Amino acid sequence: MFKSTRKGYMIMLCCTVIIMVVFICIIRINFSQLSNFHVLNVKSLLAPACGHIGYIITESKTIDQQIAEIMTLMNCTIPQKDTMYFNETTSAIDSKAIILNYKPNYCLGDTLIVQVEMFNYLGKRKTYGGDFLQARIFSPKLGAGASGRIKDFNNGTYHIYFTLFWKGSVQISIILMHPSEGVSLLWKGRNMGYNYISFTGKFLNKNQEVHTKCGFYLNSQQEKCKYLDRKYREVFYCIKLPAVPCEAFISLNSQNTRYTYLTNANKTLFS
Ligand SMILES: *[C@@H]1O[C@H](CO)[C@@H](O)[C@H](O)[C@H]1NC(C)=O
Ligand SMILES: *[C@@H]1O[C@H](CO)[C@@H](O)[C@H](O)[C@H]1NC(C)=O
Ligand SMILES: *[C@@H]1O[C@H](CO)[C@@H](O)[C@H](O)[C@H]1NC(C)=O
Ligand SMILES: *[C@@H]1O[C@H](CO)[C@@H](O)[C@H](O)[C@H]1NC(C)=O
């Protein structure tokens, strides 16, 4: 069954893979989820127009340049498709997943490759990428799980690479968290303002704790305390409380608000 070259240390542990592809749309729109998405979940090829942007941030660039480059790079991975009919958006139900390198058994450490083909609600192939997928293998009996590495070909096809880390059967789950059109809307909304999160600053007034509204942008004529992050050149404000010096700041609480930049029509993508 196996070539003998690796016989000495080849552990004859084989994994039977049970494929169970689950597509679920998950409803949750908030700022923190969006940031998780950028950091962890999707790797997209750059759109051609964005190809010239360098990955390497050198010390000689100013912080502003570095931030602008990162933002542009993120912007390039997100399709600018925020106006369209719902029936043209990615449908989990109409999409397909197949195993590219199917074998009855795999060895520990092998890579299992799954190809995902995305379709819209009209049954037409998607022709661009950017869908937010979450791919996992897991074995409930063992309590084991691992995520897959996603490659987005920007043409509606995705390859997902799973390393088989443990012995036994594994199940596969591929979830469409948001269609690319939804991602595009969330990204646009994220850049429209700061209203998704409200901040409350805690100050010490003699022996008493007092609270006041804070934020990156405060629409208020009241006197404000201004806090500057010199390195990242960000300014943060708190409404100044009478007779409490700005230096008496202790800590900050944040809370997700129910604010949305999406229209009701847009929300159909997330329900
Ligand atoms: C992203 O790119 C689009 C189109 O090129 C542009 O209109 C938009 O302002 C950019 N957004 C950000 C946050 O850079
Ligand atoms: C989002 O809402 C705007 C305004 O109603 C609309 O023009 C746009 O097509 C919507 N986008 C999606 C993807 O539904
Ligand atoms: C897609 O949805 C739009 C708006 O509801 C509708 O006008 C259009 O006819 C639909 N397209 C098809 C092919 O059903
Ligand atoms: C998508 O792109 C990949 C890589 O370039 C290619 O192998 C594949 O055939 C393309 N799929 C379609 C449907 O065009």
From TrEMBL:
User: Can you tell me where the transmembrane regions are?
Assistant: 9-31
Please verify whether the record's keywords include RNA-binding: no
Keyword annotations of the record = Membrane, Transmembrane, Transmembrane helix
Keyword Chaperone belongs to the record: no
Recorded coiled-coil stretches:
none
Q: Which InterPro entries match?
A: Ig_E-set (IPR014756), NXPH/NXPE (IPR026845)
Record's protein name = Uncharacterized protein
**SUPFAM superfamilies xrefs:** E set domains
